[in-house]
Write a structure and sequence with these properties.
By secondary structure, the chain is of the alpha+beta class. The protein has three helices and six strands, in the order αββααββββ. The chain has a six-stranded antiparallel sheet with strand order 1-2-4-5-6-3, with helices on one face. The two termini are about 25 Å apart.
Protein backbone atom coordinates (compact mmCIF):
# COMPACT_ATOMS: atom_id res chain seq x y z
CA UNK A 1 0.00 0.00 0.00
CA UNK A 2 1.40 3.40 -1.00
CA UNK A 3 0.39 6.68 0.63
CA UNK A 4 0.40 10.15 -0.95
CA UNK A 5 4.05 10.78 0.00
CA UNK A 6 5.17 7.85 -2.16
CA UNK A 7 2.62 8.58 -4.89
CA UNK A 8 4.02 12.12 -5.20
CA UNK A 9 7.47 10.68 -5.89
CA UNK A 10 6.13 9.09 -9.10
CA UNK A 11 3.53 11.52 -10.44
CA UNK A 12 3.71 15.34 -10.47
CA UNK A 13 0.19 16.02 -9.17
CA UNK A 14 -0.14 17.80 -5.84
CA UNK A 15 -3.08 18.62 -3.58
CA UNK A 16 -5.69 19.77 -4.19
CA UNK A 17 -5.41 18.17 -7.66
CA UNK A 18 -3.85 14.89 -6.52
CA UNK A 19 -6.88 12.62 -6.63
CA UNK A 20 -5.33 9.40 -5.30
CA UNK A 21 -5.50 8.79 -1.56
CA UNK A 22 -3.72 5.42 -1.71
CA UNK A 23 -2.41 2.86 -4.15
CA UNK A 24 -3.72 -0.37 -2.66
CA UNK A 25 -2.29 -2.91 -5.08
CA UNK A 26 0.18 -2.92 -7.95
CA UNK A 27 1.66 -5.54 -10.25
CA UNK A 28 4.39 -3.90 -12.30
CA UNK A 29 3.54 -3.55 -16.00
CA UNK A 30 0.16 -5.25 -15.38
CA UNK A 31 -2.34 -3.71 -12.96
CA UNK A 32 -2.82 -1.04 -10.31
CA UNK A 33 -5.60 -0.29 -7.86
CA UNK A 34 -6.18 2.97 -6.04
CA UNK A 35 -8.76 4.61 -3.81
CA UNK A 36 -10.19 8.10 -3.48
CA UNK A 37 -12.47 9.07 -0.61
CA UNK A 38 -14.95 11.77 -1.61
CA UNK A 39 -15.01 14.05 1.42
CA UNK A 40 -18.17 16.21 1.54
CA UNK A 41 -16.36 19.55 1.83
CA UNK A 42 -13.87 19.03 -0.99
CA UNK A 43 -13.45 21.87 -3.54
CA UNK A 44 -15.10 20.06 -6.46
CA UNK A 45 -18.44 19.72 -4.66
CA UNK A 46 -18.75 23.47 -3.93
CA UNK A 47 -20.04 24.33 -7.39
CA UNK A 48 -20.91 20.92 -8.85
CA UNK A 49 -23.72 21.23 -7.78
CA UNK A 50 -24.55 23.23 -4.63
CA UNK A 51 -27.95 21.56 -3.99
CA UNK A 52 -27.10 18.16 -5.49
CA UNK A 53 -23.34 17.55 -5.20
CA UNK A 54 -21.91 15.00 -7.62
CA UNK A 55 -18.32 14.11 -8.42
CA UNK A 56 -17.53 15.49 -11.90
CA UNK A 57 -17.15 12.80 -14.56
CA UNK A 58 -14.05 14.48 -15.93
CA UNK A 59 -12.42 14.09 -12.49
CA UNK A 60 -13.26 10.38 -12.55
CA UNK A 61 -11.25 10.20 -15.77
CA UNK A 62 -8.46 12.25 -14.16
CA UNK A 63 -8.40 9.87 -11.17
CA UNK A 64 -8.10 7.00 -13.65
CA UNK A 65 -5.30 8.78 -15.55
CA UNK A 66 -3.34 9.50 -12.38
CA UNK A 67 -3.56 5.84 -11.35
CA UNK A 68 -2.43 4.76 -14.83
CA UNK A 69 0.45 7.26 -14.67
CA UNK A 70 1.56 5.82 -11.34
CA UNK A 71 1.51 2.29 -12.78
CA UNK A 72 3.72 3.37 -15.68
CA UNK A 73 6.25 5.46 -13.74
CA UNK A 74 6.46 3.05 -10.81
CA UNK A 75 6.90 0.05 -13.13
CA UNK A 76 9.67 1.91 -14.98
CA UNK A 77 11.19 3.11 -11.69
CA UNK A 78 10.98 6.68 -13.04
CA UNK A 79 10.36 9.33 -10.38
CA UNK A 80 8.31 12.28 -11.60
CA UNK A 81 11.39 14.51 -11.42
CA UNK A 82 12.94 12.47 -14.25
CA UNK A 83 10.01 11.69 -16.55
CA UNK A 84 6.44 12.79 -17.21
CA UNK A 85 3.42 10.90 -18.44
CA UNK A 86 1.01 12.63 -20.80
CA UNK A 87 -2.51 11.67 -21.75
CA UNK A 88 -2.75 11.08 -25.49
CA UNK A 89 -6.33 9.86 -25.89
CA UNK A 90 -9.47 8.63 -24.16
CA UNK A 91 -11.91 6.22 -25.76
CA UNK A 92 -15.05 4.35 -24.83
CA UNK A 93 -15.65 6.47 -21.72
CA UNK A 94 -18.88 5.44 -20.04
CA UNK A 95 -20.49 6.84 -16.90
CA UNK A 96 -22.95 4.45 -15.28
CA UNK A 97 -23.39 5.55 -11.68
CA UNK A 98 -23.12 8.95 -9.99
CA UNK A 99 -20.49 9.40 -7.28
CA UNK A 100 -21.54 11.57 -4.33
CA UNK A 101 -19.98 12.97 -1.15
CA UNK A 102 -19.05 10.20 1.28
CA UNK A 103 -18.44 7.60 -1.43
CA UNK A 104 -15.13 5.79 -1.76
CA UNK A 105 -14.00 5.22 -5.34
CA UNK A 106 -11.79 2.28 -6.24
CA UNK A 107 -9.93 2.48 -9.55
CA UNK A 108 -8.71 -0.66 -11.33
CA UNK A 109 -6.19 -0.09 -14.13
CA UNK A 110 -5.00 -2.80 -16.51
CA UNK A 111 -2.18 -2.40 -19.01
CA UNK A 112 -3.44 -3.69 -22.35
CA UNK A 113 -0.47 -2.97 -24.60
CA UNK A 114 2.87 -1.23 -24.71
CA UNK A 115 4.82 -0.09 -27.72
CA UNK A 116 7.99 1.76 -26.77
CA UNK A 117 6.97 4.70 -24.61
CA UNK A 118 3.26 4.49 -25.54
CA UNK A 119 0.88 2.62 -23.24
CA UNK A 120 -2.73 1.58 -23.78
CA UNK A 121 -4.68 0.91 -20.61
CA UNK A 122 -8.21 0.16 -19.49
CA UNK A 123 -9.69 1.59 -16.31
CA UNK A 124 -12.78 0.85 -14.24
CA UNK A 125 -13.96 2.86 -11.24
CA UNK A 126 -16.23 1.24 -8.68
CA UNK A 127 -18.28 2.55 -5.79
CA UNK A 128 -18.49 -0.47 -3.52
CA UNK A 129 -19.33 -3.22 -6.03
CA UNK A 130 -21.08 -0.93 -8.52
CA UNK A 131 -19.30 0.06 -11.72
CA UNK A 132 -19.37 3.85 -11.93
CA UNK A 133 -17.08 4.71 -14.83
CA UNK A 134 -14.91 2.96 -17.41
CA UNK A 135 -12.61 4.07 -20.22
CA UNK A 136 -9.61 3.19 -22.35
CA UNK A 137 -6.70 5.58 -22.48
CA UNK A 138 -3.35 5.98 -24.15
CA UNK A 139 -0.48 7.56 -22.27
CA UNK A 140 3.02 8.53 -23.33
CA UNK A 141 6.07 8.36 -21.06
CA UNK A 142 8.43 11.17 -22.06
Amino acid sequence: MFNQDIIQQFIPHRPPFLLIDQITNIKEFETAESILRLEPHTWYFQGHFPHNPVFPGVLSLEFMGQTASFLITYSNNQPSSQQSVYLMSLAEAKFRYVAKPGDTLTCHIKLLRRKGNIFKLHGDIYIDETLSCSADCMLMLS
